[in-house]
Amino acid sequence: MKPCKAAYKIVRDGDNEIFKGFGFRHLSDATQYYVHPDNQSYKNTTTLCQPIGEAVMLLTDFVISITEDAGTNGDICYSDTATQIYLDMPVQAEWHANNITSVYRYRAMLDNSSVRVGAYDADDNYIVSNPVSFTETFKIIPVLVLLLAQKILTDNAYKNAFLWFCDFPDAATFVNIHEDFYQSYKNNDYQVNYIDIKNSAPSYPQSFASEFSVIQENRKSVPQANDVVVTAFAADEFRDEFRELIPSLPDEFILPENLKTISNAIVSGDIRALLLHGPAGTGKTVSCKLICRETELPVMQTVNCTENLDEFILGKFLPEGDKIVFSESYVTKAIRYGGAIIFEEINFARPQHLAFLNSLLDDNGFVLLDNGERVKRHKNFRFFATMNLGYYGTKELNQALYNRFNAVFELSELPDDAIRRMLIARVPECAEQTDSLLSVYHKLKKKINNEELDMVISPRNIENWARLAKYEGYIQAAEKTIIPVAKCDRSVEEAFRGIIMLYKWV
Questions:
Q1: How many other CB atoms are there within 10 angstroms of residue 25's CB atom?
Q2: pLDDT average, residue stretch 195-219
Q3: Positive or negative, the Cα torsion across 13, 43, 46, 440?
Q4: What is the DSSP annotation of 1-47?
């Protein structure tokens, strides 16, 4: 039996709603999601499979329960190689409250390619297979849960995605978890037997409860961002003329929770130089300005290293009347009087134009100006830098400079809520289409990443698309904002159009 392919052939007569799984129904509107060319879908009409989706949600609820109350209500035990796994899992009460199933507990065993499964009622009695109480759907779900557990144990990237989904469930991650699992296990063949295994529990050395309880304890030991109060510089720390340079940003921009402790370290001086890196469109520069807004730190100058960084970054001699005088830049003023400087895309800069940073960011920071003056770094000077990795034209930072950053922080992809908030605030007309816009965005990113294409799509592209769509509709606007991301690769352009055409655009 091939469980993943068998799952796609299960049809629920008279059941038009999925109980768990973000509302995607078998043989229905799940076709809005990108169909992988290798998918063996039932009648080629679905990309998401209801039994797999429900198995994902059941395991998610189970992992959450055992991390909160380790080992008291079921567990998943496994051998060191994860080729033998034992599952003892209750079915959550809401499944019974909604009359989804009469199964109250599953027990299942995986031994290489052999699977044994038993289902149990409210009194923990073995349920004999029959069409009423133990349908094909609920026969296959525990098999899928068992294999999902094995995928988590043997694929660290998948494990991280799954744990993220446990904490922050969203449709895009749900689809990715579903698809990755299917592609990994679609051709795997198992001998499945449905028998009473209540008294056959093996003693494997590892367990989900013990592993995830450690993870949970480690999480608890980390200060929760919601409990962190960001402090600010005192009002008299900066000149009045410079306080006008404290960033003012629209309300839709909110300081990420994971930057609150860093913000406090910046105020105290434990972090003087911060480097943010990550993909395009993740809000690196905005994050720097948000830190400065919340800490009331003036941003004296923002320098785009692809354009504006040159040998005169600290100032230059200029004619003034009949004299030639040295004019300080705002970079130098920040060093002298305190304030923040932001270097955007620092790894685009020529190394000779960054040389002054080595002495500036040292313990006894200073710079030498072209007029011969030695300027000591002010105690409230702060240096921010951002960079993308792996883009054409970028350079690897000198190790000596890299080591002078007190903290290096990677900004991951913006969460959907942040992108949605940004889109609605900037383009209110797109409010009803934000779910579709986000879904397209994730599908395009997945295609680019899976096929390792030399292309980048970011929330900026989606915003530009929504802005232009006000005038000529989403399909037309996509030709000028989204399709160009494909860089004239005709096959990719057609793939992008195919994804966009799956949606109903108003």
A1: 17
A2: 78
A3: negative
A4: --HHHHHHT---TT--S-SSSTTPPTTTGGGGS---TT---GGG--S
Task: Report if residue 506 sits inside a domain.
Answer: no
Q: Which helix (H) or strand (E) holds 218?
A: helix 208-221
State the Cα–Cα distance between residues 172 and 399, nearest whole angstrom: 37
Do residues 401 and 471 share a domain? no
Domains identified in the chain, total number: 3
Render pLDDT for 396-406 as a digit per residue (tens, 0 to 9): 778 888 899 99
Same structural domain for residues 301 and 236?
A: yes
91 within a domain of the structure (yes/no): yes
Q: Are 279 and 414 in contact (CB under 8 A)?
A: no
Q: Are residues 211 and 287 in the same domain?
A: no
Residue 425, pLDDT above cutoff 80: yes
Tens of pLDDT, residue by residue over 127-184, are: 886 544 566 777 888 999 999 999 999 998 888 888 888 877 776 678 778 888 988 8
114-120/191-194 β-pairing: parallel
**pLDDT over 90 for what percent of the chain?**
39
Could you say which of 221, 238, 273 is where a domain stops? 221
Q: Which of 165, 200, 221 is the last residue of a domain?
A: 221
Residues 401 and 435 in one domain: no
Tokens of 413: 């992809």
87 vs 57, 75, 116, CA distance in Å?
Answer: 16, 6, 10
- Mean pLDDT value across the chain: 84
Per residue in 271-288, pLDDT (tens digit) is 999 999 887 777 889 899
Q: Do residue 453 and residue 400 come from a single domain?
A: no
> How would residue 26 be classed by pLDDT, with cut points 50, 70 and 90?
very low
Residue 205 lies in a domain: yes
For the chain, what is the total number of helices (H) and then of strands (E)? Answer: 19, 15
Name the residue type at position 498.
G
**What span, in angstroms and rounded, lies between the C-alpha atoms of 50 and 32?**
15
The three-state secondary structure class of 233 is coil
- Read off the pLDDT of residues 344-356 as tens digits, 9 standing for 90 and up: 989 888 888 899 9
Domain of residue 425, residue span: 416-500
Using CA atoms, how far apart are residues 212 and 220, in angstroms rounded to an integer?
Answer: 12
Whether the Cβ atoms of residue 418 and residue 378 lie closer than 8 Å to each other: no
The 3-state DSSP class for residue 95 equals: helix
pTM of the model: 0.56
Point out which residues pair with 340 in neighbouring strands: 299, 382
Asked if residue 429 and residue 285 are part of one domain, the reply reads: no
pLDDT tens digits along 40-49: 544 444 556 7
Tell me how far CA of residue 454 lies from CA of 34, 357, 460, in angstroms: 20, 32, 18
Domain co-membership, 340 together with 319: yes
The reply to whether 13 and 91 lie within a common domain is yes
505 falls within a domain: no
